[in-house]
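Lecture 7 notes: from sequence to structure.
We start with the chain below.
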Amino acid sequence: MTLRLRTISREEHLAYIRSLPSASFLQCPSWADVKAEWRSENLGWVDDSGQIVGTALVLYRQLPRIKRYLAYMPEGPLINWFDHDLTRWIKPLLAHLKSRGAFSVKMGPPVIVRRWEAPTIKKAIADKTAKQLRDVEPDFYDPRADLVSARLREMGWQQDTGGGAGFGDVQPRFVFQVPLAGRSLEDVHKNFNQLWRRNIKKAEKAGVQVVVGGYEHLPAFHEVYKVTAERDRFTPRPLEYFQRQYRALASEDPNRFRLYLAVHEGEVLAATTFITVGEHSWYSYGASANHKREVRPSNAIQWAMIRDAFAMGASVYDLRGIGSSLDEDDHLFGLIQFKLGTGGQAAEYIGEWDFPLNKMLHKALDMYMSRR
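Predicted structure tokens for the same chain:
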């Protein structure tokens, strides 16, 4: 079977994504509207019969003062990554992007290489036998993923080991997920650790109510989000970013984006954004107040989202990124510790990869980003 790459319409792109069990929301056509500062293009691989068999949302970021671009495919493209002949997918892609003025290409193959169950990670932390997740024997390993990495290296791709030419948009390599397929809600709840179950009960007894908010509730979310940003020392995104995300994703599919609010005595104590594509649901952004933490709004809101993901037929609830460090003194350790309480799994993707079409410009951008 020969493959031909062409620009496709948003409608064709969305139809292909809807034919899949799941796909990253970062590869949906609507994501281009969220990333308004990037130019975008929808690409499709077409087989001999004219059927679309793979897609990519490409985001183009222009270099200052010259018409050359970084071409970025976050958590994509959506192709058959286990095809023994990856070049028939990648070669026409690179040629097309070069013709569009790209000097460098960044992509994030949605390929998982390892998984660790929560008890495995907890034991490694308790025994102090590992400093990093990779030091722990995985519960699942896919040798095909290492073959994908080897083939990419043979083609000249370079693995992004952190930072790199990502303009701050580099996606997490390690994520934490709660499998839902083939399970009951009772089983999911039973698999939470004792602290999580106790905190969910505390929130219920305290009268915490979790509600699905609308567009008009985004300012309330953003106020709590700014408190979280100050506490955790990161730069918050502006309210307009979340308003744009709500409009873009909800217009593509009414179930694509939801806003959750945990309310206690009329006050929003925690808030989250929730995204669904096919059978995959994500906890995307989270925020919590500094006070009334004893009523456990964060646990309550997570349990509400998991229940709703289950009701929507999701096979996985994804809590997104975690750090790979198992050192209790690491500043990201609290994140993995909180997510471990769900009894889910840590998963490692093969990471993001760069292809320098113009080595001089690619190196110059790398140097700029490392200094920034």
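Points to note: Residues 256 and 276 are 5 Å apart (CA to CA). The chain has two domains: 4-174+350-371, 181-314.
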